[in-house]
Structures are given as structure tokens and as C-alpha cells.
Amino acid sequence: MNNSLTPLEKMSPEVETLHRELVEVQERLNVAEETLQAIRAGEVDAVVVSTPRGERVFTLQGADYVYQCLVEQMGEGAATVSSEGLILYCNKRLSELLNCPLKNLIGSQLETFIAPKYKKAFLLLLQQVQSETNLTRELSLIAATGNKEVPVKLSLKQLQIDEILVNSIIVTDITESKIKEAGKLSQILNSALAVIKNFRLLTDGTLEIDSWTGGTQQIFGYSLEAVQADSALFIGNILPEDRDKTIASLIENIQAGRSGIIEYRFLHGDRTIRWLASNYVAEWDKEQDCWVGIEIITDITQRKEREQKIAEQAALIDIASDAIFVKDLDDRILFWNKGAERLYGWAEAEVIGQKTQTLFNQPCTLTEAIQITTDQGSWLGEIEQLTKTGKNIIVESRKTLIENKFYQSRCILVVNSDISEKKQLEKQFYHAQRLESLGTLASGIAHDFNNILTPILGASQLLPLKITNMNEPTERLLKLLSGSAKRGADLVKQILLFSRTSDGESAILQLGYLLLEVIGIAQHTFPKSITISTKIPARELWTISGDATQLHQVFMNLMINARDAMSSGGTLSISAENRQLDEDNALLNLEAKVGCYVAVTVADTGIGIPPELLNRIFDPFFTTKEVGKGTGLGLSTVMGIVKNHGGFIKVYSELGKGTEFQVLFPAIEGEVSLTTVEQAMPRGKGELILIVDDEASIRETTQTFIENYNYRTILASDGLEALALYREHQQEISVVLMDMMMPNLDGVSAMRALQEINPGVKIIATSGLLANRKLALDANVKTFLLKPYTIAQLLQMLTEILPREENKANRIPPRTTQESSSLPRVELSRDALAMMPPEWLQQMYDAACYCDGDLVLQLIEQIPTSQVAIAKALKDLTLSFKTDIIMELTDLSKLGVTKDP
């Protein structure tokens, strides 16, 4: 039946197939035509893409409509890009990000919208993308207008549409997150004590700074804005001597692939120099073809200061005066510093490996200190050691047990401080304390002596005036009494001087002239076997403030001691010089101070002083002389006088070679004053004197001799009785003579009570202790009389305190006999004594210089009877112990008289 088909019928299926294909082609042509019309009208996006079969038009017309709508509604930018970077499609959001119309974007290269520094990275990303993989990268796009840089994150995935490989790209705007991150980071960095610098190092060595963040104000002293505006501000403030080295080191290390830290000095905004440290790291960036790095800059000024302090402390090991060394437990020295070299004299090479006990000649008992150190970890004590030169020293040794980490063994660190001078000063201090204690005791003894000697001295002066026509034995007894009283008074003065409670009358003195006077006496009285050598530049010496009589006694005592030390003869040397003491010299003596001094040296070639006795020679009552030849108060008195004058004494002695005393007095500026000559003792006009003293002998003696000079008296034994008598006789009493130390009511309380009764009461305070003068001054009593006092001193004091109108009429000698009452008033002067023979004047001068009152009185008796008034005046001076005035009056050099050869 099939064979019955016609040929046309047989071709019908093929025709139908062809018809269908033709219809499809026609439909495609219609679509193509519509597409071309839509493309021409701008209704659809399309791109001509080259393929192996030729150029083809790529359009979304055939894409899924739902997908297209979804892409258009996305908040991110979306694009389809060829493998060469050609934009095949993009959505409206990407157009907004790039600020470019869609028609201009499609068909253009996406690379043109990539920030320059990210272009290489973007092209490399296109090459790396593969199917079924997602790649992301943060970079910046450049808007088509305004050149605005937009930070974005790209997400890429490769797709194949028909025969075309394309890349699907999602573009996310991260501007807001970047701003937030930058804000947080900026806030953190700005408050941090560090500065972060992002930089690039180009292949030609150019260093470009991309950004600054952090605490530039704290680190640099400039605001972040100022540094960002001028990056050269940072480099320009690196100190010139550090700048080139810092930059060269940074570049060299980065090019070599090394990170590191560079330290340099920087001129801060406050114009102080700071130390900064740059900690940098960098790596090669293929995309940018340069090194990209980050640098963190911190201020290390405090660390540098600490390092400097540590370095200084480390240097102290060698510059310290302490000897510092390390030894093992076998006593062998392992380390020896420069201080040890200076202290002991051995160099490091000489002692390493030596044992300290052998080196310092220390006893084996010192092993106990080592044992304590090893058991307890430390030891402290004083040790006597020998230096290389054989010198004995005392060190304060501190031993500490330490672990040696290198040898895994224990060692002992030893720090020895030389305390030899300290120990010497301690001895001086303890000696001074002992003298002070003895001085307190001596002061109390002196007070009692003064109370005993006051009536004796008064009686010894009154008896010659009361007794007439004395026979020779009586006269000798009175002279013995007078001499003993004066020697007792001198002894009390020495005790008071030793105890530092006695002051003399200070004046500006030239020591040179005083020394020449003392030397003159020595030359006339010392044995001829003693040669006296002097070097006294009198006119060149500085002046001092002091009491001439006391200083005379100082040098006389020193010369007499030197004479006694040279019983077989020798040389006595006396010299004086000006000396300036610095701090080092002043530290060697407790009493010394920095400043100008006049130094007097008294040296002999005698037997010397044994070392064991040298520290005791200034002790009171200590003497090496035979019984009856020394009181032991000579040098103690010298010490007391010198200290009262603000000076100090240094002693050097060697057995068999002699002794040298150096006495130093502080110098002052001023002119030498001359002692005035006293007038004769004044008389009273019947004034009533209230005498208050708990010692009956003092009351009675004082009453007797002031009544002899035309005063009336009334007596009281203590303060209470004195107050009762004063209330009764207030209108009659002119002066109150008040003892300071009494039972029941003491003198100070009594004086204050008297002042309450009568604020204008005139009081003379008396005491055997000079320290009580201050108590009198505190009680507003300015007139003070030290016991034992003489008739002349008391009368003179009464004259001064009573009204002046009365004083002027009564300055005449006391009337003792009918003969003496007719004596004329005499003014003692050098002219009045010039008529005496030079030999007599010289003898009088020497006797007064030696304070030999007996000899002075004998010489006075040689004065012609026609000059009895002069003799009487000289006798008054002698009895009142004014021998310095007699010396002044009888000095041949001042009288212009020369002694016959």
C-alpha cells in the first residue's frame, strides 16, 4: 500500500520539517530585527562580542526576566564583565556608585574606574578568577565626575554563557563602614602614645607617606592635621646628626627585606629634645611594584633616661671610692674594681686568684664572717686590713652571698668602705664628749671655789688697808695670804676656761705683736741651752677677735711645756701664718669650719709624747711631770681658751724627735684696739646697798670693804629676806647686790619680784658661774659681776650703775690713813712712768706678763716716796688683776725708752 504513494506524498514529511525550520528562522529573524530596532532605540543593553564563529550580539533579552528584575533591585552594584574587563552588563546601582549613565558604562573597560593604586591588583584578579570559585578584594573606584574615590568590595565569579566566558561581579559600597572603622581607629590612635605611618618605598629609593594616624600631639608636639598637611615636618625635626643615618638605615633594611627598630632624637614642638623609636615592617607589593610598609613611632625618652641612669650606676662600680670585689667560697678573688685598686694599691692582674686573707694579712678568725655569710646570706662588720704599702686601714665590710649563673656556683660580693678617717673623728668626738663631761664637773667645782675665794680675796685686799704699822712677820703672812688667794683665783679661772663657761673681754688683736711679747719673755727666762727660732710676720698677719690675757696664757703655756720637754736643750720654733681652710681640711677636725684662720705653730725638739698618751694630754689634771711640778691644767686650759675663741688645736708628736702644736684662730676684719688705762677706785656718798648672799663670809667681807669706801649696807641671806628688807627700806636702797644661786628663793625669782615692787630698781647680779649671766639678762638685769670679784671691780660696777652726777664727784682714791687721804688724784699714763729706770720698767713688764703679783708688788715698793700716788694706782691695778694694763704702761717700745746694753 505504501508503494502506492505518490512521490509528492513521500516528500511531505520533509517538507513539513523544512516548513517548521523556516518558521523558526523567520521568528528568529523577526526577533533579531526587533532586537536591532530596540538596540537602535536604546531600549535594551547589548554588546558585540567576538567569538570563534565571528562577532555576536550579547543582550539580556534572552535572559531570565525574574533574574533581571532581581539584579536591578539589588542594593549592591552588579556587572557582567568579560575576561578582558569589558563591561557587558551593569545594574542601576553601579551606575549610581560611579556617577555614570548606563549607556556610557556598558561597553567600557571597568579598569578605567579603578583607583590607580589598585589597577594592577584588579587586572591580576581578573586573571586569577576561575569557574566555581569566588574571589573578593577591597579597593577603591573613581567616580566618572568629581574624581571622588569610593571604597568598595568586589566579589567575582566566572560564568560561561553559550561560548562566552564572562565574570559576574558584585560591587558593595563600604564607605560607611570604612568611615566608622577609621573613626574608631583614629580615636584609639589619637589617644595612644604612638604614631602610625603608612608608607611606600619606590624602587628608586623615594619614600612616600600615604597616611598618618595616632597621637602626634603627644609624640611630635604637633597636631595630626599639621603632620598630615606637611609630612616633611616629621623628617625636618629629626636632629641633623641623626637624620641622614636614620633614613638611610630605614631604606637599606627595607630593601634588604628586613624589619627593625631605629632610635633617634627628635625636636619636639615644645622645643625639648625627645628620643623616638620607629618600629617598621614592609613587604614587596607586586601590584604596586613597590615596598609597602607600616611604621609605629613611640616616645622612648623615659626609657633612655633610665638606661642612662643604669649606665651611670654601672660606671659607679669603677668610679666609686668603695672597694668592690667578688670572691668564691675558697676566698679566691674573681673580680676587682677600680675602687679596690685605689684603696688597696693592687691592680686587678695582681690579685685575681689570690686569697684575701693572705693579701690583707687578715687572721683566720675572719672565716667566721664567711661562715655567717654562707649561712645567713650577708654579713656586716668592721675589719682592720693592710694595703700594698703596708698602711693599716679600717674598713666597713659588707658581704653578700650571690649566685653565679655562669658557673653554677655561689660567690661572695664584698663592698669595703674606708672608715679610717671616720674612726679618727669618732675618737675626737668621744674625747670631746669626755672633756665636756669633765667640764661640767669642773664648772661645779669652780662655783664652790669662787664662793670660797671671794671673801679670801676681799680680806687679803682689806687687811693692808686696815692694819697700820705692821711688823715684818705680819707683812709676810699677809703677802702669803694675798699670793695664795691670787693663785687660787688663777686656778679657778683656768677651771672655768676649761669648762667653757668663762669669757674674757674680747677685742680686735694682732697676734703677731702678742707673740713677740711672749717670745721676748721666753728669751729672757728660758735656759740658754734652748735656741728660740721665730718666724712672725706681724704686720702681714690677719687680725682676730680675742682676749689678750687669755691668748697670752695659751702661748706661754705651750712654750713652757716645750721648755720642759727639752731638759737637755734643743730648739723651740714659733711661727705664724695666714691660712685658708677648704672643705676637705675642715672635715678633718670637728671644731673647724671653712674660712680664713691665723695659724700659730709651737714646735720643739724634745722627747715627744707617747702615742698612747696623745689623746689624754688635754684632759684636766692629767700630767706626766713629777709631783709638785705640774697641775695638769695647763693644756686643758689652753684647749678651753682656744675653743672659746672659735679655734682648734692640732698636735703632732714623735718619740725622740719632738712635738708640734698648731693653734688656729678664725680671722676677722678690723683694726687693733688699745686698752685704756683705768682710774683710781671711786668712793660712795653714803648710798645704801642691799647685799644678798647665802654665804655669810661673802656677805660680811663685801659689807666691810664697800663700807670702807663710804657706802652703807644692809644684809640678807636669801631671796625671801631680801624682799622683806626691800619693802621696808625701798626709799633708801640705791642698789641690790644679788647672788644668783640661793636656797628658799633663788636670785632670778627674787630679782623679778623686786622689779614688780619697783620696776626701776637697780640690781647687780653676782655668781660663780658665767652661764648665769644669761639668766640675769633674761630677768632684764644687765649688770653682772663674776665671782670672785675684787674691791675695784665691785666699786667700779657701783659707780657705773649709780647716777652719773654722783659718780663724777667721787672718783678719788680710798681713804685708809691720814697720809693717804691727802694724796692727789692721779691719771696713770706712760708719761707718768717714763721717769722710772728702763731696767725697772722691763722687770715690771715681765712680772705683769707672767702674772706674778708678788714680784709686781715688790717692784712697786721701789717707787720713790715722792711718787706714792703712782705706786698706789699701780697697786690697785695689781690687786684687781689688771696686769695687762701694767704691761701696756711699761712697754719700753711704746714708751720710746731703750734699755742700756
Which structural traits does this protein have?
single chain; alpha+beta; 7-stranded mixed beta sheet; elongated; 901 residues
Question: Please, could you describe this protein's structure?
Answer:
The strands form six sheets. Strands 18, 19, 20, 21, 22, 23 and 24 form a seven-stranded mixed sheet that branches. A five-stranded antiparallel sheet has the order 4-3-7-6-5, sandwiched between helices. It is built from 34 helices and 29 strands. The model is unreliable at 672-679 and 805-826 (pLDDT under 50). It starts with 6 loop residues before the first helix and ends in a 6-residue tail after the last helix. It is 43% helix and 25% strand. By secondary structure, it is α+β, with helices and mostly antiparallel strands. Strand 28, helix 25 (772-778) and strand 29 (784-786) form a beta-alpha-beta unit.
The main pleated sheet reads as: 7 strands, mixed
Determine the mean pLDDT. Answer: 78
Structural shape: elongated
Flag low-confidence runs. Answer: 672-679, 805-826
End-to-end distance, in Å?
Answer: 202 Å
Strand % is 15-25%
DSSP strand tally = 29
Q: What is the helix content?
A: 40-55%
Structural class: alpha+beta
Q: Taking Cα atoms only, what radius of gyration do you get, to the nearest Å?
A: 58 Å
Query: How many H/I helices?
Result: 34
